[in-house]
């Protein structure tokens, strides 16, 4: 019987479907030496963002039976893909499954920021009625700038256009489907023109933030930045500096340089909405991810 290790867990229905198809599914969490040992014993491993599969883990799997790595979610930057494939190990992911969930979370951060949802809720629970204290802004007529125009970016762009926003994007990939309404621009143009900037890209290979003090300086006064993609692609201290200086009006984040985050300036900044890496944490998205994992396993093992 072939063994599937779901080291970061797997949706119950997907586990059941794999078992019914004749696979053994191990949902225990392994770390360090225990993970290296277990990787040598399994035929496939399924990870989310928590488990990193670098060269030592891939070597351990290649020395045993490992033939398939699946990243349940968007992106594969926690896996050394080229090295794995050089060892004869296939790498797959489920890029479409959580796209809508992440796009909707970005929208939730946008709305929460521009309508002061958190602050208004907090003060009302304190018995305050600050009706005149929270003048917001509307999304309609504003410009949404997207750094990254993959599945999530395209879905968020569609939603934003339906809300009456202008959508512009920058992406390094040349083969993006032609956009009728969303307009491709340079990164510098997106930074200068966006009222709301959303980052929807993987981590840089060199670890350098995509958005730092230099990039923020190019942006409009009172713009917003949202990162629901990868921790570290926005310089957190530069972001707080810009908000405190009145350059940016606010921001929202679902991913952080360190998780759980330890940057107290970020955590205490009153103009940043924060969520604990829940972009794909909807039952609908998890079910779709599970279905895609099952299909990939059946096709490749």
Characterise this structure.
By secondary structure, this protein is of the alpha/beta class. The protein has two domains: 112 residues, NAD(P)-binding Rossmann-like Domain (Rossmann fold); 176 residues, NAD(P)-binding Rossmann-like Domain (Rossmann fold), CATH 3.40.50.720. It has twelve helices and twelve strands. The strands form two sheets. It has a seven-stranded parallel β-sheet, with helices on both faces. Strands 2-1-3-4-5 form a five-stranded parallel β-sheet. Strand 1, helix 1 and strand 2 form a beta-alpha-beta unit. Helix 1 packs parallel to helix 12.
Mean pLDDT: 95
**What's the story with the biggest beta sheet?**
7 strands, parallel
Fill in the CATH topology of the largest domain: Rossmann fold
Low-confidence segments, given as residue ranges, are: none
Count of β-strands: 12
Which H/E pattern describes the elements?
EHEHEHEHEHHEHEEHEHEHEHEH
Topology overview:
Layout: E1 3-6, H1 12-20, E2 24-26, H2 32-39, E3 44-47, H3 55-62, E4 68-71, H4 81-86, E5 90-93, H5 99-114, H6 117-125, E6 143-147, H7 151-162, E7 166-170, E8 183-184, H8 187-193, E9 196-199, H9 213-218, E10 223-227, H10 236-244, E11 248-253, H11 264-268, E12 272-274, H12 283-300
Parallel strand pairs: 1-2, 1-3, 3-4, 4-5, 6-7, 6-9, 7-8, 9-10, 10-11, 11-12
Helix pairs in contact: 1-12, 2-3, 5-7
Summary tags:
single chain, Rossmann fold, seven-stranded parallel sheet, five-stranded parallel sheet, 12 helices
Give a quick summary of the entry:
The chain has 301 residues and is of the alpha/beta class. The protein is built from 12 helices and 12 strands.
């Amino acid at each position: 019987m072939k063994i599937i290790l779901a080291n970061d867990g797997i949706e119950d229905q997907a586990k059941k479907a794999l078992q019914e198809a004749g696979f053994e599914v191990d949902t225990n969490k392994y770390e360090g030496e225990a993970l290296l040992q277990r990787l040598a014993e399994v035929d496939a491993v399924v990870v989310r963002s928590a488990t990193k599969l670098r060269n030592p883990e891939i070597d351990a799997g290649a020395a045993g039976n490992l033939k398939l790595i699946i990243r349940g979610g968007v992106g594969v930057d926690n896996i050394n893909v080229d090295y794995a494939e050089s060892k004869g190990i296939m790498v797959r992911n489920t890029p479409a499954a959580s796209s809508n969930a992440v796009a909707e979370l970005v929208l939730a951060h946008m709305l929460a920021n521009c309508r002061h949802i958190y602050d208004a809720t907090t003060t009302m629970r304190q018995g305050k009625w600050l009706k005149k204290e929270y003048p917001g802004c509307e999304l309609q007529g504003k410009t949404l700038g997207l750094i990254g125009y993959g599945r999530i970016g395209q879905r968020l762009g569609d939603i934003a256009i339906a809300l009456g926003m202008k959508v512009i994007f920058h992406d390094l990939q040349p083969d993006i489907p032609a956009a009728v309404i969303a307009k491709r621009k340079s990164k510098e143009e997106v930074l200068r023109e966006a009222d709301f900037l959303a980052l929807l890209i993987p981590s840089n290979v060199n670890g350098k933030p995509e958005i730092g003090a230099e990039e923020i300086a190019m942006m409009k006064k009172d713009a917003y930045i949202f990162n629901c993609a990868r921790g570290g692609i926005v310089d957190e201290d530069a972001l707080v500096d810009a908000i405190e200086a009145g350059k940016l009006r606010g921001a929202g984040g679902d991913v952080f340089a360190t998780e759980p985050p330890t940057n107290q300036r970020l955590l205490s900044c009153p103009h940043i909405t924060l969520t604990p890496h829940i972009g794909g944490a909807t039952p609908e998205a998890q079910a779709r991810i599970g279905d895609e994992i099952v299909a990939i396993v059946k096709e490749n093992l």
